[in-house]
């Protein structure tokens, strides 16, 4: 497989490799014909993705991360560090910036590209001080009347001993409680992986959006397979039964909107992905700007209470 392509994309990868070879020797007519084949194949390949294939796209190593979106969507961004209690957590980005001259607070997860950065960012898995940092910045947003944008992309909160000793569960629970009653508009976007409490801790919003190939679930397919079947080879089946894709969660009312991606996934065109995301985010903020603080809190709590099915 050529580097950067997924297994199910092999036919497309082979075509693109052939186009590069023909371009190098100046075979323009053949290149034109193959480019038409690429368009047809892309349409066919990406219009009927399985849940597991969407898992692979959500985890794609070239998929844009939070800082990539900030670079393309946000101006005058100032990152704020530390929880004022223990330390800074590089797995969480939090700060103040502007989108289209609208000031807002921005929080979310940041993964790494290479080995060094992945270790520095802890693979996008926050410690409790990361969640306490987000809460500090969100309260700062309330003080200045700024809306809040949360960008989610994490496999989970970090489950290490140190994180547990410093109150991982308490930090997540506190964020859930506090976000529910913040008197400013909150828009949440799941941009990649939305895993378990690690995602939920910054996912309490008036509007919850998901990019087309993102995931949002209580557990990863691998974890689900190991628990339900005690068989790691059942990950594809787990991805199916978890109903973790954007289209499934929209049907269940867990999310409010699916944000389209460039054909083939956000990693195919970062600029276009950011343009589509920015358009969706600002449209939702404009709608929420019409609501009072009391209406925002009431709507957010009502949204949480309506999730799921239960009987007395």
From TrEMBL:
Every CoA carboxyltransferase C-terminal domain range: 30-287
Keywords: ATP-binding, Cytoplasm, Fatty acid biosynthesis, Fatty acid metabolism, Lipid biosynthesis, Lipid metabolism, Nucleotide-binding, Transferase
Annotated pathway: Lipid metabolism; malonyl-CoA biosynthesis; malonyl-CoA from acetyl-CoA: step 1/1
GO cellular component: acetyl-CoA carboxylase complex
One GO term (biological process): fatty acid biosynthetic process
Compartments (UniProt record): Cytoplasm
InterPro entries found in the cross-reference section: Acetyl_CoA_COase_a_su, ClpP/crotonase-like_dom_sf, COA_CT_C
Listed GO MF terms: acetyl-CoA carboxylase activity; ATP binding; carboxyl- or carbamoyltransferase activity
A Pfam family recorded for this sequence: ACCA
Gene3D superfamilies for this protein: 2-enoyl-CoA Hydratase, Chain A, domain 1
Keyword Lipid biosynthesis: yes
Enzyme class: transferase
Domain of life: Bacteria
Reactions that this protein is recorded to catalyse: N(6)-carboxybiotinyl-L-lysyl-[protein] + acetyl-CoA = N(6)-biotinyl-L-lysyl-[protein] + malonyl-CoA
Main location: cytoplasm
EC number, as in UniProt: 2.1.3.15
Subunit architecture: Acetyl-CoA carboxylase is a heterohexamer composed of biotin carboxyl carrier protein (AccB), biotin carboxylase (AccC) and two subunits each of ACCase subunit alpha (AccA) and ACCase subunit beta (AccD).
Family under the similarity heading: Belongs to the AccA family.
Protein's job: Component of the acetyl coenzyme A carboxylase (ACC) complex. First, biotin carboxylase catalyzes the carboxylation of biotin on its carrier protein (BCCP) and then the CO(2) group is transferred by the carboxyltransferase to acetyl-CoA to form malonyl-CoA.
Database matches in NCBIfam families: accA (TIGR00513), AccA_sub (NF041504), PRK05724.1 (NF004344)
PANTHER family, A to Z: ACETYL-COENZYME A CARBOXYLASE CARBOXYL TRANSFERASE SUBUNIT ALPHA, ACETYL-COENZYME A CARBOXYLASE CARBOXYL TRANSFERASE SUBUNIT ALPHA, CHLOROPLASTIC
Protein name: Acetyl-coenzyme A carboxylase carboxyl transferase subunit alpha
Species per Swiss-Prot/TrEMBL record: candidate division WOR-3 bacterium JGI_Cruoil_03_51_56
